[in-house]
Amino acid sequence: MDNESIDDPFAIPGHARAGIFSTTSAFRTETYEEQTGRKTGACVPRNEVTEDSYEERREDTHEEGREDTHNETNPYYPFNNSSDYALALWFQDTGCTKGDVNNFFKNKLLEPFHIGLERPPPFRLGLSFKNDRIPTGVCNDDWRELELTVETELEGQVPSMVIVQYRNVINAIKFLLGHFPFASDLVYSPICQYNDDNKRVYTEMHTGDWWWNTQQKLPDGSTIVPLLIGTDKTVLTQHHGDVAAWPVYLTIGNLKAEVRRQQKRPSSLLIGFLPIGASGDSKAKIWHTALSIILEPIKHCVQDGGILMQCADGQLRKCFSIIAGFICDYEEQMMITGVKSGQHCSICEVPSDERQNLAKKWPTRTHNWTRQQI
After folding, report:
1. What is the pLDDT of residues 108-145, one digit of tens each?
2. Alpha-carbon distance values, 237 to 166, 203, 278 (Å)
3. Nearest 5°: CA angle at 282, between 279 and 288?
4. String of DSSP letters for 142-180
5. CB neighbourhood size of 69 (10 A)
6. N or C: which end of the chain has fewer CB within 10 A?
7. What is the largest CA-CA distance in the chain?
């Protein structure tokens, strides 16, 4: 499907919205459906969705005397109309505070400009500045703590306890995929790009082989949500350096790389803290246990045949959240792969006494090969 050919109902004069293929328009593109005849990133009609299979992101917020505007005929929801949306966007782009908005509606001399706008007391722009009607942040966000026991290697020593803190990773994924400002920056299907010499060109994640090959293993119409996870031990104090944390962050490969790198946009979410305090063999065991707890819901997402999620374009899709990459430093690489620091490579099967031989290539290590070494 050619995403650029779809009219954008949210376009406002003076506010250009970049197309999702704006960085790849110079190349010839072939979609997954064109090459395989199978659909991907398909939208699920709402009339085919049962209440048990999909839970609405928003809560019931009907007000007395107000008609709910959440329907397929109003693309500006939760705003009542295009005028409300355009004015709210202008307020945001110009940096107006809520006090500025209230003063706009209180000013009697500006009443001619209020015509056509929803203006219930106390001088609010319809649904625009009501926190209970506009979804903000991760829906149903609930941080949890769980104690883990660190077994000691010394006889007679009492085991210690560490704490892992985490939020529901599925809710974080739903936020990233359904965040309205990301609507023009999300992709739902893999493609192949070719230059003038008919050679493959790799730019965004959906142009790579991993997404394409993984798509072939899923049912027709499925939407892959590639999960990119990152972690790095961080010192919290600037002077003493005696307080540290091990945060775990999440972003999705559906977002353009440019957007994922922007610090001012919520493109990467904190999903948990790994415990600090264990040492020796217990350190790796606790690290893996804590990470398994944080990412546990992802396994059920795939095993249960995907989850219906509302995307930023307002459409429902059957999504499969799959870990596609883990961004970390050498210390974390050692614990992920289960090898000893300074002796083995976390990427290939090179023996420790051959690491200095850069002229020879070794096979990439696999999960099964690592298990055999252990």
Report:
1. 888 777 766 654 433 344 444 443 455 567 777 788 99
2. 22, 38, 20
3. 115
4. --EEEEEEE--SSTTPPPEEEEEEE--HHHHHHHHHH-G
5. 18
6. C
7. 82
Tokens 């609930």 belong to 142
3-state secondary structure of 352: helix
User: 18-44: per-residue pLDDT in tens?
Assistant: 334 444 457 889 999 999 999 999 998
- What does the alpha-carbon distance between residue 347 and residue 364 come to, in Å, rounded to a whole number? 6
Q: Output the average pLDDT for the chain.
A: 78
Amino acid at 53: S
Tell me how far the alpha carbon of residue 186 is from its chain's centroid: 10
φ, ψ dihedrals at 74, nearest 5°: -120, 95
Bond into 120 cis (ω within 30) = no
Closest CA to 274 of 327, 238, 234, 240: 234
Token duo for residue 314: 């307002």
Q: Hey, CA dihedral for 93, 95, 97, 100, is it positive or negative?
A: negative
185-227, pLDDT tens digit by residue? 999 999 999 998 889 999 999 999 999 999 999 999 999 999 9
Spatial distance between the Cα atoms of 38 and 220, rounded to a whole number of angstroms: 6
CA distances from 285 to 49, 328, 335, 345 (A): 42, 18, 9, 19
pLDDT at 279 over 60: yes
Length of the chain: 374
Give the Cα separation of 148 and 275 in Å (integer).
Answer: 9
How far, CA to CA in Å, does 22 sit from each of 53, 67, 206, 257, 353? Answer: 35, 38, 14, 12, 48
- Most confident of the ranges 69-73, 286-290, 319-323: 319-323
